[in-house]
Amino acid sequence: MAYRALTEQEAVEYVRNLPDFFTAGGELSSHEIGDGNLNLVFHIREDATGKSVIVKQALPYARVVGESWPLTLDRARIESEALGIQAKYAPDLVPNVYHFDADLALTVMEDLSDHVIMRKGLIAGNRYPEFAKHIGRFLARTLFFTSDIGAHPYEKKALVGRFINPELCKITEDLVFTDPYEDADTNNFNPLIREEVEAIWNNAALKKEIAHLKYGFLTKAQALLHGDLHTGSIFVTETSTKVIDPEFAYYGPIGFDIGAVVANLLLNYAGQHGLKSDPADRAEYRQYLLETLESVWSEFASQFIRLWHTQAKERSAHVEGFWQDFISDVLQDTVGYAGCKILRRVIGLAGVADLNSIEDDTIRAEAERLALAIGEALILQRANIKEVTDISELVKQVTQAIDHQEASI
Amino acid sequence: MAYRALTEQEAVEYVRNLPDFFTAGGELSSHEIGDGNLNLVFHIREDATGKSVIVKQALPYARVVGESWPLTLDRARIESEALGIQAKYAPDLVPNVYHFDADLALTVMEDLSDHVIMRKGLIAGNRYPEFAKHIGRFLARTLFFTSDIGAHPYEKKALVGRFINPELCKITEDLVFTDPYEDADTNNFNPLIREEVEAIWNNAALKKEIAHLKYGFLTKAQALLHGDLHTGSIFVTETSTKVIDPEFAYYGPIGFDIGAVVANLLLNYAGQHGLKSDPADRAEYRQYLLETLESVWSEFASQFIRLWHTQAKERSAHVEGFWQDFISDVLQDTVGYAGCKILRRVIGLAGVADLNSIEDDTIRAEAERLALAIGEALILQRANIKEVTDISELVKQVTQAIDHQEASI
């Protein structure tokens, strides 16, 4: 069947024709619920049985910008294949995929309506006690088993070939690593922080570090990344975590995925300035966020190291001192990429609700200044980060400095 | 036509059937002249016209080991495609390819019989005044235009996909980066240097650095490398240089190709201990080799930097200070990879004639000890190498220390 974007009704007919989903001739409802930027998402449900599925279809353009920004449908293949690999290593942490249609760039998958998008949950001030353990395991296992350390050398190289993803990578190259650091048309920031943004555009030391991090994104083919692991790509309940939307998957630096999680926890941390008005509440929730951040890293690192010691396929893995250096490099990359992802969410095209839902422009600007200061500090000081608690310390120092600055104005 | 290894006579018939090479019905001679490890090489000549070609055919196994080591025929495609890309950027520095046959894994190319293999030329004590300029340009242009700095991001990623080369990379991974540093069956070294080899096997600091360099070989997808750029892959005359045999081509660290050239100049430098008996002659030729090494780097760096400033496609290329850091990283990689390639030629499966042609075991052992000491110093001290003259200084220091040591025994 040649590609065409489905209507709600066509999506129902499509899944009705698949065996084993719904009662033959049963009544199905269909709602397009996509709030992302690149895809149609249909929620299809049979009230009589309570059964439901999600039909996700890639559009041949970036929805956020319009049809003027064409975008490959191959990303649907990338996403379904990445979900398959992630399911192999962390089956409980990704949605089940029931069916993939390459011609329609369409995937039928598990309905996760009983979960909430983690970003919304954090904005609502909820806590997810299992999250750090789950995402740490997801990161450790998906990254280890697709790396040169954990995969056979032929398998790794075959995967590199399957996940060459130039168009989606280009979005990241432009929107995360380039446009925000110059006066680009795509940028979109609060006019009240123009002074701070211009200071970033003129900060030669910072821009050089970002150029290095971008070059790492372009060249460090370390593991099959999710590629866009922000809190909008994670569904949660108190007891369950599901990672979705790996259409940006490609072979890149391990720290880029971990850094995305870290960045989005810290964007919420910065947003607390406007999200919670009571200082004690705010401090307590921020502490929860920093503890979560530390646990994400610790879970990742301990599981990754355990896999390294027990399941490495690479013969040099057991050379004395190598794994310690390796983990230390990943931590510094994590910190640097977290910094870039924070800056771009404040300055660049795609903001985050953790900040954008703060209605008062002045208060939002204060939260954004804190985010910028944290992002900048992470990038410039990442070589000094030896343990994950150094990140929390740095974030607290920056927060105090910014609070002090604002109090003295 | 299904694959079969050709005989000399079949090779003649094959080229006779191609248009525009030889006189119809003319008398052709055919000689299999391959002295490499992996391929058949036929030299076919028509005496009446003086016309000649080379027919290179990949064997489905590694000839050096025998039919027990199967090896993909896809390497013939990789080689012919790599030659095509190199010809685009340095047309005078590679052989012309006239014809490629994927089924037979066979390439018909320019006959370079008027050139000599550079390794033989250096062993004979010849000098090649144009070599450094030529190879520096070859490196600068082929590496720049296939890198993320010089290629469009889509073009670079497409090239990564075309040059995924797992089986040939595995040979390098094993024989350059792993086997020589442990007591592996493939190793093949002079029994007189066992003590020094065992010291390497027990040198934890050295092995850790080699593990890092191997990991860089596995993950740093910086540019389309030749992949095996030793002096046996370079044909020379006094005025011409031709780089052949890029069947190991893949996306890897830029310093790996430059390091191969550096390593092979230094292997000849070490071999001079036995190749030239007169100390003054030896010192003079060694000085020529070090000056050549310095010129190779300087030509590479100056041309690469000029391309960077004038032809970069990557937007971050012009960020202040980035190119200086980049060149400095490439120099340190060059030094590290040169060190590995020196060590493996002394300890591992495939030696070099620069050392192996020294007939006296004791004198050869002295040359090999010098090579090991140079290789080790390059790997361990590469972080201190800031300019190419630091390499020459280090080599001279190591040479003096070894000379002193042998004099005092």
Written overview of the protein:
2 copies of one chain form a homodimer. Helices cover 53% and strands 11% of the residues of chain A. In chain A, strands 1-2-3-5-4 form a 5-stranded antiparallel sheet, with helices on both faces. In chain A, helix 9 runs antiparallel to helix 13 and helix 13 crosses helix 14. The longest helix of chain A is centred in the last third of the chain and has 33 residues. The interface between A and B is large, with 38 and 38 residues.
Key terms for this structure?
homodimer; 409 residues; alpha+beta; 5-stranded antiparallel sheet; 3-stranded antiparallel sheet; 14 helices; 10 strands; 53% helix; globular
Largest interface, C-beta closer than 8 angstroms, per-chain residues: A-B, 38 and 38 residues
Q: What class, by secondary structure content of chain A? A: alpha+beta
**Approximately how much beta-strand content do the residues of chain A carry?**
5-15%
Determine the N-to-C terminus distance of chain A: 64 Å
Note the quaternary state here.
homodimer
Q: What is the C-alpha radius of gyration of chain A, as a whole number of Å?
A: 21 Å
Approximate helicity band of chain A: 40-55%
- How many helical stretches of chain A? 14
Q: How many strands appear in the DSSP assignment of chain A? A: 10
Shape of chain A: globular
- Low-pLDDT parts of chain A are none
Compressed to H and E, one letter per element, the order of chain A equals HEEEHEEEHHHHHHEEEEHHHHHH
Strand order of the largest sheet of chain A: 1-2-3-5-4
The main β sheet of chain A shows up as: 5 strands, antiparallel
Question: What is the mean pLDDT of chain A?
Answer: 95
